[in-house]
Amino acid sequence: MIRGFLVSTCLMDIARPQRVLGWGLLMVLLFGVGRLYLYVSPEEPVADAYNQLSSLLVYRVLMLGAAIFSASVIAQEVEQKTIVYLATRPIPRPDLILSRMAAAMIAVATLSLAAALSVSFSVYGREGLSNPYLLRDAKGLVVGSMAYVSLFTLTSLWMNRSMLVNLIFAFGWETIVANLSGNTYRLSIFTYLKAIAEKPTSSSGGPLSLLSGDRGVEFVSVSTAWGTMAVLTVACCWACAWWFQRFAYLPREDAE
Amino acid sequence: MASAPIADLSYRDYDGPLAPPTYRWWVIAKTTFRNSIRRKGLWWLLLFSGMYYFVMLAILFFVDQFAANARDGEQMFNAFIGRITWKTEFLHGWSTAQMWFLLITLLIGAGAIANDNRANALLVYLSKPCDKRDYLMGKWVGLFLTLLLLMSIPIALFFAYAGLSYSEYGFFSQDRTVILRLLVMMPLGAAFYASLMIGVSSLFNQGRMAGAAMAAVYFLTAFFTKLMEGAWTVMQVDEGARRDLSPIKNLVANLYYASIDGLQIGMAKGVLGTDGSPPFGIQPRRGEGMQFVPAPDLATVLAIMAAISALALWVAWKRIRAVEVVK
Amino acid sequence: MIELDHASRWYAQVIGLNDVTCEIGPGVTALLGMNGAGKTTMMRLITGQLRPTTGKVRVFGMNPFANPEVYKLLGYCPDVDDFYEHMTGREFVELMARMSGMIPDEASSRTDRMLQRVGMAERADRKIGGYSKGMRQRIKLAQAMIHEPEVVLLDEPLNGLDPVGRREFIDLLAGFGEQGKIVLVSSHILFEVEQMTRSLLLLHRGRLLAVGDLRVIRELIDKHPHRIRIETTEPRTVAEKIAALPFVLSIQFDPSGRALEIQTKEADRFYSFLPTLSLECGLPIEGFSSPDNSLESVFGYLVDS
């Protein structure tokens, strides 16, 4: 019961009206970008356009959302000095952090699914819900939210300026490594999410294929992708719970 | 009753003149600058921002070394160097460094006003003989100077090395005004980032949230720019390089610059006077004869950047208050 | 019972707490010290926010670090002035109550009662962001006691309270102490602490300087003579009588001409002599007091030494 309460409390904090408004505006912008892209690429098949936009924008919203929301799990509490209230409640620390992580995962998944819907409606119009790639993307986005939030929460427990590191990872590492040859591409979470979402390879070449992670030659199988993401998520969650249980988290005197 | 001082000031033993504090903003700027350059992660981000130049220097060095030992080495080297348009190398360095410049801006500027909001330091600042103008100007100048210094270091190093090593290969003769162009480009870029960051920082009470907001705007608009670049490339592949721009291509060419990244690149293209060319002048196999997105009208880009900067600073001006208005 | 056994805590090269051994039992105990003495460090060790670098800390026999069983019995009113500013006071206290394991109805009713008790019932539905310092302190106290803990730790709880609020707070804490709860209050405002309790823990530069009853501590500081002030209309006559006493070290006349201050190493002997002075010599003694028995003087003596 307490875990459910923690999840709901954290979700209510994340989903405050001003914040929802901001993200809502983003969905509108994504819709606009989708329509614009169709206008400037009239010959491109609708499915290709959706997949291009999905890889380029929706998965980036996922990564960005994960970087921001994972900071609200513990790092934000430390920075605003309210960690003292959480840490002195009769709640086991693993329960506390895992519940808050669950809330962040739900928020990120909701946000990225909304982004996918927005892009789908912009490209497919009223048939946006029956877009065959939407459900596949939903799998990728839900798994991605769990993987990214658990990883980014772990980095936020380890270091003070984790958001910068998480952003570099999300927009630097994930963009570049997914395109590398040999086995290096396996070090990118995006590689596995694409496999889970069974995303078709972009045929356009150029910078879009680079940003879509399609420059690499090798791809992982769906089962490998599921397994790897499961292991990564569970390992990061366990590490977060162990780390938070083991070490002291005090209100930080200096504001970042 | 004759007017009398509120407090008995007889304990004061200084009788001299009191100079007006004319450079209050400079005190704030110096403090901001000093605090910024002390941040440890800053120098790593600077290193990454100059990666294009370092890689280029390394390639030039090794090609030079190789050519010195090879048969017909000089001919080969001349052919290699002859393809390089030096000012477009600066353009490439500038555009690849944008993400790192943003991260540097976040690191040193996200909390510039947000942290003062949180700590109620504005009460302290504005209770001194220091008004909003001094505070805002001081914060902006401090951030601007830091960014300018950091942006200029890799460019200056590359300029110095290439100038010393390749002056006879056209480094100066290709465009004698390149140093002036760089000296205009860097402050414009630094000023734009500084203004945006100050404006965003003033909206929040936590540096982290301000940084998140700025990062969100940057990255999502940057990917929009990439989307337009992709659309441009697709149009080029089938149509060839010499076809007249259709209205859609014009729209794409303009929308390419509709982002923070795009504005910085557009400004750099306009100031340097180049549309861009492949790095080292080497055309990719698939992109033979492809045009780069043409440079926008410089006046338009500068006007947009100035308008956005002014808006950001106006927001900051409105948000800077000594008293918290409780709703 | 709170026990510290040779507990030390280092922050890199800085010693926060240095080899402190003590036991804190039921009643109100004051944790005193200057800024940087180690009071907050000690509070954080007891509340399980920090582990000791060496030594042990026990609360009811349990290690408090990240221990939910301890937190069921412990309430903490921290010195930080930060909250979830977007919440109302009621929402915040109710949140803390729910996080203490209460079901919604119980949390709600207890919140109402606690807000009444701390004097925030009428203002609890405003956002915390608009609260004054005193109101924030009251909300902090409410969240610390919402689950009726056995141990209450308060880090500088009187900061920002108006005089009436302070009086109410002190009475509230005294009430907890009388119920047999362990109340540990940290402060550097000595005269307020004196009103709360005579049981002290005195820290200075991370070390425990003294522990126990104020008077007992004072008596143990034997190298500092006691000062006793005598109010009388005939100070010089009184001085003449007491100057011959071997245990009187010095006599000083008050500028008002209606009092004198003596210094003695044997305060008890002098007190037993005073009635003789008054009755047998017929001298008008209107009153006497000991400035030395104040906490401030005890603190000063201990710190200076």
What oligomeric assembly is this protein in?
A: heterotrimer
Uncertain runs of chain C are: none
Taking Cα atoms only, what radius of gyration of chain B do you get, to the nearest Å?
A: 25 Å
What portion of the residues of chain C fall into strands of 2 or more residues? 25-35%
Number of strands of chain C: 13
**Relative strand content of chain B:** under 5%
Total number of β-strand segments of chain B?
0
Fraction in helix of chain C? 25-40%
Number of contiguous helices of chain C = 11
**Count of separate DSSP helical elements of chain B:** 14
Largest sheet of chain B: none
Task: Please identify the structural class of chain C as seen in this structure.
Answer: alpha/beta
Structure description:
The complex is a heterotrimer of chains A (about 260), B (about 325) and C (about 300). Chain A is about 75% helix and about 0% strand. Chain A has eleven helices and no strands. In chain A, helix 1 crosses helix 6 (about 95-125). Chain B is mainly α. Chain B has one domain. Chain B has helices at about 25-35, 40-50, 50-70, 75-80, 85-95, 100-110, 115-120, 120-125, 130-165, 180-200, 205-240, 245-255, 260-270, 300-320. Chain B is globular and about 90 Å long. With about 300 residues, chain C is α/β, with parallel strands linked by helices. Chain C has helices at about 40-45, 70-75, 90-100, 105-115, 135-145, 165-180, 190-195, 215-220, 235-240, 265-280, 295-305, and strands spanning about 1-10, 15-25, 25-30, 55-60, 75, 150-155, 180-185, 200-205, 205-215, 225-230, 250-255, 260-265, 285-290. In chain C, strands 5-6-7-3-8-9 form a six-stranded mixed sheet, with helices on both faces. In chain C, strands 11-12-10-13 form a four-stranded antiparallel sheet, covered by helices on one side. In chain C, strands 2-1-4 form a three-stranded antiparallel sheet, covered by helices on one side. In chain C, a hairpin with a 2-residue loop joins strand 8 and strand 9 (about 205-215). Chain C is elongated, with a radius of gyration of 23 Å. The mean pLDDT of chain C is about 85.
